[in-house]
Amino acid sequence: MPRMRRWPRRRGAAAHERRRRMSGGGVVGEGAAEMNERRVLILRTDGAARGNPGPAAAGVVIERADGTTVAEGKRTLGVLTSNQAEYRALILGLRAVARYTPAAVRVCLDSELVVKQMAGEYRVKDEALRPLYAEASALVRALPDVTFTHVPRARNARADALANAALDEAARHAREAREARA
Fold first, then answer.
1. Which residues lie below 8 Å from residue 143, measured CB to CB, with a gap of 6+?
2. CA angle, corner 141, sides to 136 and 143, nearest 5?
3. d(CA 17, CA 62)
4. Is 39 exposed, middle or buried (CB count within 10 Å of its CB: 0-12, 13-18, 19+)?
5. Where does 34-181 sit in CATH, by number?
6. Distance CA 96, CA 119 (A)
7. DSSP characters for 63-75?
């Protein structure tokens, strides 16, 4: 019977190690395929900038393979270009998904540029994107079995909505602060 591979020690890895030892190190009955499917996570990220450059934000959604949401979040990013915002959102998402020690990660983005650069199909020519690309690449190398897929904006709607909600909230707070000072 094939042995399960050892996972790097991260948060939650001790519990996995105990389960692996209890099962004799092999594949456990019919539940193994189901368990592995639950450990495949889908990461959907979107970066948005109003203006290029302009105020920017990120939206991140982590889902199980069956489509149920594991976690989601949003964050303002300051003033960035749209491509910088896309990379920042990806970096935030990769950091977040690592906490769940997935068996595999499917990254879905509506930024064709970022997908093609992360897949190695395009070079990173923009100097401002190179450090972001390097950071994202390092995070990808630390995760098992990461794939990138370009999806239409409609299939990334929740991450897009979160990024825009963060921008709307930041604009509302700025407006309220200006009105309070006036």
1. 94, 97, 98, 102, 105
2. 100
3. 24
4. middle
5. 3.30.420.10
6. 20
7. EETTS-EEEEEEE
d(CA 22, CA 40) in angstroms, rounded, equals: 22
N-to-C CA span, the chain: 73
pLDDT tens digits, the chain, 182 residues: what are they?
333 333 333 334 333 333 332 233 333 344 445 545 659 999 999 999 999 999 999 999 999 999 999 999 999 999 999 999 999 999 999 999 999 999 999 999 999 999 999 999 999 999 999 999 999 999 999 999 999 999 999 999 999 999 999 999 999 999 999 999 97
* pTM of the shown model: 0.80
How far is the C-alpha of 80 from the C-alpha of 140, rounded, in Å? Answer: 23
